[in-house]
Amino acid sequence: MGHIKSTANSLKSILNTSYHHFSSFLFDPNEVFLKFRALPHFIANFIRYKHLRGKCGFPLCMRDIHYRTWDRFHTAGIVVGHYFHQDLWAAKFLYAHNVKDHVDVGSRIDGFIGHILPFCRVKYVDLRPLPNEVDNLHFLRGSVLNLPFGDNSVGSISCLHVLEHVGLGRYGDPVDPQGYFRGAKELGRVLSPGGILLIGVPTGRERLCFDAHRIFDPDTIRDAFRPLELLEFHLIDDSGTGIRRNASFDLARSCEYGCGLYVFGKN
């Protein structure tokens, strides 16, 4: 029985890996399947609408067709996974601590940054350009390896789902196997005494998935940020359905692809 289960798990792993590689380099077979599955619904809806519209409906022109019927097979939205829970966690933290001025390095604009702009002024640093201006958001072109701030000058700073990419060249940064470590030291350099640093990174079985990201053992991140003090550690486990508050490192490293949420301080 154990042999059969082990064989099934190995086969599942092979299939998942094959699907992942095929989708990354070519196209997502699941999306193609959904498009074919939805096509009869699209045709039926088109004919029905054309029959019902009479003289009152919008005109139907082939040049304006925008086929999206496969959306009927998706969920109403995404309320699971790293970004949803991580971004809410960080935004709630700043709100609860009445932070009015904050620095962020490379986190998600249409998630975490959007959450905090109504109550907080943000200086946002990223390698890539930001073409539009938004109230309360001041963009600075720069790198986590060379932040445009003085030593001990930033009281509140975050870097969410960023360090795992640094040094892999994915976003135009120089290839450097120690990129995540150098980024951690730079964030620690600018953090002021008594300040707070929020970090989110993939956590679990430590490995490199070139050139997408790294997955860290939780101790690797704690060591990279020394001598900063780890104040809190929380975890989004493999289920992605919520945050495990004050989780153990053992639980985190048992994940395949979890998300560690760290709060660091500088004495």
Q: What do you see in this structure?
A:
The chain is α/β, with parallel strands linked by helices and 267 residues long. It contains seven helices and nine strands. It folds into two domains: 2-73, no CATH class; 82-265, Rossmann fold, CATH 3.40.50.150. α3 (82-96) packs parallel to α4 (109-116). It is globular and about 70 Å long. The termini are far apart. The model has no long low-confidence stretch (mean pLDDT 92).
Please describe the topology of this protein.
Layout: H1 2-25, H2 29-53, H3 82-96, E1 101-105, H4 109-116, E2 121-126, E3 137-141, E4 154-160, H5 179-190, E5 191-203, E6 207-209, E7 213-215, H6 218-224, E8 229-236, H7 249-253, E9 258-265
Parallel strand pairs: 1-2, 1-4, 2-3, 4-5
Antiparallel strand pairs: 5-9, 6-7, 8-9
Quick overview of this protein structure:
The chain has 267 residues and is of the alpha/beta class.
